Structure formats: structure tokens, C-alpha cells
Design the sequence.
């Protein structure tokens, strides 16, 4: 190929591989691969054509930019001439798309929907990256700089995803980058002419030189280390958002240290990591005139798929301030009380402001950033990247005293009701459907159906609360939970919300905090910690709005509140239905929580209301970790002992060949002993020369001391004589005394060495470490040779043949 076409084509392939990380941030990404490939092909083709026509270097980027503009116009332009030629109206439309994309970025969650504005912004970025890679790698002949736009692409999912970024996009992008470097280097060699070996043999330009082969080995090794290191070291995450919050497993960076580090609450109900921490971290403090304020609401997860519930995009966001009257449409016989609360966020980094449900006003003027309120979900949020850490604000809210009798009067929700259309969609699952039919059998109203589903999760049905769950085999998370019947609050809430939706009743999962603990001496002040993080369910009743239900056993949830209209299915003696809006907290093990009276204690299900939560014991994990660490530390020493025993495990024999073999094994063990204790043991040195150096020599009438003395020196002489006889004599020296000679040498070396040398010889014997190092190096060379052979068949010379 001429005009560096092969480098341009490989640069295009590298561009395609570089955009693969973007697939992880979209819910559906088939359009990205299709349109992205088409766009990159057009840009590469335009660049090759421009260089073939010998266009000036400054004109080549203009040509590729024009192609990019024509492509975007054909896909997104409105009012374009002939469908592809942009007009001022098209440019204005593009500006509107960019503004809309900026709003979408702040509003949508990852994985994002494939909205038109986001597609336009993504393809614009893909085109610019392909243009830059071609310009720096081909036009400017600086392929190393092409890594910068590639890195910019990879940084997008790293910055926006709060879970780990998949490894394979990084591997693909790095492979494309390395291929581009190799192609450019080969092209440079070709420009100098033909290569010849020392004997005059013609060498193809793609055949690696020793230096080039070393560079490729380094590149492959660096890529392998970059991929393997984050996987082998648990503390290294793949997303920078881990610095601020929860990773995919629900744990945050603080690890429960209680040092005031922020703890991100993942609104997709990833709570297990916080609940398993040993240390208590204060997250918020509330002062309210409500003697039993109930749960503090953070976020709503109302979009469901097979993986569970997650938040959807805001429905009808409004500015914080005066909010819609939550009492509108409420039956007049429902008791209600107006309350106010002052809330102060401590160690909590989240884009949500915790609010008590049914807020009537929120004063967040002193909170940094722009905050909005979604009246459909009752959530205060920020779409501008702000977080609530350190926020201080006040709110007014209404507390209702619902009863079972009142809720039974609620009519069944109409399928055309907006709430039904938004909050009843659920994936089809035959097992869940059958469980819902069983749970709601005989129920004649919506409330009794919900109560029947709630009672499904009682301990009499085999359900139990645990933070240590096991995976199922059905392929459906909810089905696995309903069959295994073990889990924590997020699983209980998600399963109940799913089943309620299956029954045709609007429901959603809510995340936030339980009531928490009263501050001693301040009856109006409540504190919530990481142990109060919780998930529950809200069910929609016509005329009443969203009513909370909590299927998780209250005895094991810190600061839980007994709901008169939703009795705990695991408590056989629930609070009477004519009780107030909240009957006070249930002690679940929080050491500072107020203790209930003895009459409230549960005698069923094996747990009392005041019982300590059954948390997994931590000492087995520490013990297992300590044993594993000890085993790793003792691995070299164990390997050395086993090697020594294998070498010296011979029986007395008269066969000369067997005697020679045993002698050689003893001599090898002697060399390892010298290496372990820091003495040189050169393999090219003769046994007699080594013995002379170690035990001393006599020159004339002068004697020179050696490194070994006494019995150790005698043992070394015996070993050297035996090895010399085994090598050169017709009859080898009998093997008697060789083991004793090795033991004498070892004792003498240990006696004459320092403390740290002795410790190193036992725990980290240099002979074993050196043998492992060589084995690893040999394995690496074998792997590189295999990759080189593979590369020979996949080299661009094979793909892009030239004359």
C-alpha cells in the first residue's frame, strides 16, 4: 500500500475498538456499533482519498470534518438541502440537540436510554475521535498521541458509572492502540528500504527485530498487568465514582471506619454493604415536633426489569419551595397532623435530599446547588451533579393515621389511571404470577390483596432475614428469592413491589432511613446511621395516595416502625388497627435505640422485638484471611522442605547408575544450601574448585582460610569428592554419609550466618525464589513466542497484502 493507507485503515480499526467502552453506558447500543462503524469508515475513506489526491496537510482535516457534518446532517438534520447539505436551520437544530443532550445527561441514569440528543452527541464525539486519531497517527505521524483521544473515550463510562466498568472494552481499545503503534513502526522501517539479516537473507518488514520484539513483549505485558492488577487487588476499583460512593457490590470506600468519610447511598437499593459494616457512621440528624416521625425518604426505584428495581427519570420536576397539597383528595375521616422538621446531612454524599413523606414545603435555600422536587415520586433531587453532604434545610409535612378499615374502602385502581400506567409494569414470570394468585385468593378489595402479599413474607412461610444470601438457579432473581426465602430489606421490598404490581396494583420501592434513634436529652432530635439504611414499599390507593408497607421482619431492622395498617407478618400479635400513625420504633439491635416495653416483645418466630440483629460473625473471615496469609508466607519454605525431602529420599543401592543419580541430587541440594545462605555457587565451577574456595587452600607453606570450617568443611569435601567421582570415575563413591554431610554443611552455614540471613533462608529461601523466577520467565517467553506465532498469522501484512 502507498500513502500510508494501511496505517490509516488500522487507525480506523483502532477508532472502532476505542468506542466500545461507550456501549456500557447505554441501555441499547446496537445503533452505536452500526452508526459508529459507518461513520468511522466514511471518515477513514475521506482521509485516504484526500491523501491520495495529495491534498495539503491543512486541508485533510477540513475534508474529514465536512464528511462528519454531512453524515450528522443526513441522520439528524431537519430542513437540509437534498437531505445531506446543512443549512443555518440545521446548525440551529444541532445546537438545540446539544442543549437537550446536556439536560439529558443531568436527568437520566446509567444505563441511559438511546434518546436522539444523546445519539447525536455520541456520534459527534465518535467522529471527532476518529478524525483526531487519523490526523495524529497518519498526517502528523505521531501515533503515540492517538492514545489521548482513546483515553478520553474510555474516561466517559469511568466517570459516569457508579459500578465497575467492564474490562473487555479496555482490552479492545488497548489492543487497537498497540496494533496502531506496531503498524506505524513497520511503515517507518519500510520507508528506509528492505531489511537483510547478517547472512544477507531478505527479511520482511513485518518480521520483528530483536528490539521490536522486546517492545511488543513489553506492550503485551503492560496490557496484561493493567487488566489483571485491578482484578487481583480488591481495593482497586475501575470507576472513579468509587471514590465517592457505592460500587457494584454495594460497599463504599469507607469500609465502616467511622472516620467521617462520605458514604454514597446508591438509590438502586444496594444496601447490603452498609448493613454489614461493624462501625456506626452517623449520616443525618433530624429535629422535628413529631414524637414518632417514621421513615426518612431518599429515593424511589420505580423502573423494574429482571435484575430488580431502579430509579427512572424524573417525571414532573418542579423547583423546591411550596409544594402541592398532600391532603388534596384525602377522605376527611382520616386523622392527620401537620409537622415540621429541620434536617442536617452529615456523612452522606448523594444527589437526593432526605425528606419525610407527604412534604408540603421545603426550604433548601441554604443548600448549595440547584435542587428540584418530583411530586410523582415525592423525591427531592439534583440533576446538576450536586450532593447533599453538609446540607441543612427544613420541611413541612403531613402525617396520616391510616387504618385497615379506612384503606379497605379504597376502590380498585382503574387501569387507565396514570399511576396504574406508570407503576404496574413488570416482567412476566409464571412462578411469581402463581404466587400472587395464591396470596390474593379470596381477597375482595385492593387492601386485602396487598395484605395477603405482605403476609407471604412471614416466618411461618419460611422467610428469614439475613445479609448472607446464596444465588439460585432459576435465572430470575425474584424467583430465586421467593424459593430460597432468605434475604435482606432490598430483596424483601423488591419482591413485594413486584408481586403487588403483578396483582395490577401500583407499587414502587423506596430507599431511605428508618426512624433512627432519639438523642438522649433531646426528645425532638433523631439520628440515623448506616445501620438505619432501609428499603420498603409504597402502594397506591385511590383517594389516599402512596401508603407505605414494610415486608422485612421488623425485629431485625434497626429503628423500624410498626405500621398499624401494615402489621409485620413475622409478629403474631401486631399493633391494634386503631393505633396512631406510628407506634414507635422497634429495637433491632441498635445499642442506642429506645427499648420497647416487655408487652411488645415477640414470642414467635424465634426473635424478640428487643433482640440483637443476627449479623454474620466477622471472626471467621479474619481467621480465614490470617490463615490464607500465613499459608502464602509459608509457601516458599514449604516448597523448599518438600524439594529437599524429594532429593534425599533414596534407599541404599549398589547399582552405579542409581548411586550417581543420588549423588547428583545431593550435589544440587548442596548448591541450593549455599544459595540460601548467600554464598556463590557457580554452575561452571568444578566440584574441586568449589571445595577449595569454600574450605580453604594451602600455597607453599601458607594456609588460606575458607568460608566453611570444622565439620561443615569436612562435609563439603565429602560432597565434592562424591560428585567428582560420580562425574568422572568408573566407580562412584558409595552414598553412605552423604546425608550426614549435607546436614553438617547446613548446620555450619546456619551457625556462621546472621539472624536475618537465617530467617530468609527458612522463610524465603533464595534458591526456591530464583527457581520460581526462572520458571515464570520461561513461561513468559513461551507465551510471547506463541503470541508471536499468532501475530504472524494475524499480522496486517496478511490482512492487507501488497504487491
Sequence:
Amino acid at each position: 500500500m502507498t500513502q500510508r493507507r494501511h496505517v490509516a485503515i488500522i487507525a480506523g480499526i483502532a477508532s472502532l475498538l476505542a468506542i466500545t467502552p461507550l456501549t456500557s453506558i447505554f441501555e441499547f447500543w446496537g445503533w452505536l456499533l452500526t452508526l459508529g462503524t459507518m461513520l468511522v469508515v466514511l471518515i477513514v475513506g475521506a482521509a485516504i482519498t484526500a491523501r491520495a489526491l495529495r491534498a495539503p496537510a491543512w486541508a485533510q482535516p477540513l475534508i474529514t470534518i465536512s464528511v462528519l457534518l454531512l453524515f450528522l446532517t443526513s441522520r439528524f438534520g431537519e430542513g437540509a438541502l437534498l437531505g445531506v447539505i446543512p443549512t443555518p436551520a440545521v446548525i440551529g437544530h444541532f445546537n438545540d440537540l446539544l442543549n437537550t443532550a446536556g439536560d439529558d445527561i443531568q436527568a437520566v441514569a446509567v444505563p441511559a436510554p438511546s434518546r436522539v440528543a444523546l445519539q447525536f452527541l455520541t456520534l459527534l464525539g465518535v467522529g471527532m475521535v476518529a478524525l483526531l486519531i487519523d490526523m495524529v497517527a497518519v498526517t502528523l505521524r505521531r501515533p503515540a498521541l492517538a492514545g489521548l483521544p482513546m483515553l478520553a473515550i474510555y474516561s466517559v463510562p469511568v466517570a459516569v458509572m457508579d459500578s465497575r466498568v467492564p474490562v473487555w472494552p479496555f482490552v479492545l481499545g488497548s489492543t487497537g492502540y498497540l496494533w496502531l503503534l506496531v503498524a506505524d513502526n513497520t511503515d517507518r522501517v519500510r520507508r528506509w528500504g528492505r531489511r537483510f539479516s547478517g547472512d544477507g537473507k531478505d527479511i520482511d518488514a513485518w518480521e520483528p527485530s530483536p528490539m521490536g520484539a522486546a517492545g511488543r513483549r513489553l506492550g503485551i505485558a503492560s496490557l496484561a498487568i493493567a487488566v489483571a492488577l485491578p482484578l487481583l487487588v480488591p481495593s482497586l476499583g475501575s470507576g472513579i465514582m468509587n471514590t465517592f460512593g457505592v460500587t457494584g457490590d454495594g460497599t463504599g470506600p469507607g469500609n465502616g471506619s467511622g472516620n467521617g468519610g462520605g458514604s454514597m447511598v446508591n438509590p438502586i437499593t444496594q444496601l447490603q454493604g452498609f448493613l454489614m459494616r461493624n462501625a456506626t457512621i452517623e449520616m443525618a440528624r433530624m429535629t422535628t415536633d413529631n414524637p414518632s416521625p417514621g421513615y426518612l425518604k431518599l429515593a424511589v426505584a420505580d423502573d423494574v426489569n429482571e435484575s430488580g428495581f431502579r430509579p427512572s427519570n424524573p417525571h414532573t420536576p418542579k423547583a423546591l419551595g411550596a409544594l402541592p397539597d398532600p391532603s388534596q383528595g384525602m377522605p376527611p375521616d382520616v386523622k392527620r397532623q401537620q409537622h415540621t422538621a429541620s434536617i442536617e446531612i452529615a456523612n452522606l454524599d448523594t444527589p437526593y435530599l432526605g425528606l419525610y413523606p407527604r412534604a408540603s414545603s421545603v426550604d433548601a435555600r441554604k443548600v448549595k446547588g440547584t435542587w428540584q422536587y418530583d411530586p410523582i415520586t415525592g423525591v427531592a433531587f439534583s440533576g446538576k451533579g450536586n450532593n447533599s453532604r453538609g446540607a441543612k434545610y427544613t420541611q413541612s409535612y403531613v402525617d396520616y393515621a391510616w387504618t385497615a378499615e379506612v384503606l379497605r374502602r379504597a376502590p380498585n385502581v382503574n387501569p387507565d389511571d396514570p399511576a396504574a400506567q406508570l407503576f404496574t409494569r413488570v416482567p412476566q414470570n409464571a412462578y411469581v404470577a402463581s404466587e400472587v394468585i395464591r396470596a390474593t385468593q379470596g381477597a375482595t378489595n385492593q387492601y386485602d390483596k396487598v395484605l395477603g402479599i405482605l403476609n407471604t413474607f412471614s416466618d411461618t412461610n419460611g422467610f428469614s432475614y439475613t445479609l448472607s444470601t446464596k444465588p439460585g438457579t432459576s435465572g430470575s432473581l425474584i424467583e430465586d428469592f421467593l424459593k430460597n426465602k432468605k434475604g435482606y430489606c432490598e430483596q424483601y421490598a423488591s419482591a413485594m413491589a413486584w408481586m403487588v404490581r403483578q396483582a395490577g396494583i401500583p407499587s414502587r420501592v423506596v430507599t431511605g432511613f428508618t426512624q433512627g434513634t432519639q438523642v438522649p436529652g433531646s426528645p425532638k432530635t433523631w439520628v440515623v446511621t448506616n445501620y438505619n439504611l432501609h428499603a420498603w414499599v409504597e402502594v397506591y390507593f385511590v383517594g389516599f395516595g402512596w401508603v407505605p408497607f414494610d415486608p422485612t421482619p421488623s425485629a431485625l431492622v434497626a429503628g423500624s416502625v410498626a405500621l398499624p395498617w401494615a402489621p409485620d407478618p413475622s409478629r403474631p400479635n401486631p399493633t391494634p388497627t386503631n393505633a396512631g400513625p406510628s407506634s414507635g420504633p422497634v429495637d433491632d439491635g441498635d445499642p442506642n435505640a429506645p427499648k420497647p416495653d416487655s408487652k411488645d416483645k415477640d414470642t414467635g418466630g424465634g426473635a424478640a422485638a428487643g433482640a440483637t440483629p443476627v449479623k454474620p460473625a466477622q471472626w471467621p473471615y479474619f481467621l480465614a484471611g490470617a490463615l490464607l496469609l500465613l499459608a502464602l508466607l509459608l509457601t516458599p519454605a514449604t516448597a523448599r522442605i518438600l524439594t529437599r525431602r524429594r532429593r534425599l529420599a533414596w534407599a541404599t543401592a549398589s547399582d552405579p547408575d542409581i548411586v550417581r543419580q543420588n549423588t547428583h541430587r545431593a550435589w544440587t541440594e548442596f548448591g541450593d544450601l549455599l544459595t540460601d545462605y548467600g554464598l556463590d555457587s557457580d554452575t561452571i565451577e568444578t566440584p574441586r574448585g568449589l571445595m577449595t574456595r569454600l574450605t580453604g587452600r594451602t600455597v607453599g607453606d601458607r594456609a588460606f582460610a575458607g568460608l566453611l570450617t570444622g565439620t561443615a568443611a569436612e562435609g563439603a569435601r565429602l560432597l565434592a569428592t562424591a560428585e567428582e567421582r560420580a562425574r568422572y570415575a568408573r566407580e562412584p563413591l558409595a552414598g553412605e554419609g552423604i546425608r550426614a554431610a549435607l546436614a553438617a554443611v547446613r548446620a555450619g552455614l546456619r551457625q556462621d550466618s546472621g539472624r536475618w540471613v537465617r530467617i530468609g533462608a527458612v522463610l524465603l529461601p533464595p534458591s526456591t525464589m530464583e527457581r520460581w523466577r526462572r520458571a515464570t520467565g520461561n513461561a513468559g517467553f513461551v507465551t510471547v513466542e506463541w503470541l508471536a506465532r499468532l501475530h504472524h498469522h494475524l499480522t496486517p501484512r496478511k490482512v492487507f497484502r501488497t504487491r
Observations:
- The chain has 23 helices and 24 strands.
- Confidence is low (pLDDT under 50) at residues 195-201, 233-273, 573-615.
- The first helix runs from residue 5 to 18.
- The first strand starts at residue 195 and ends at 196.
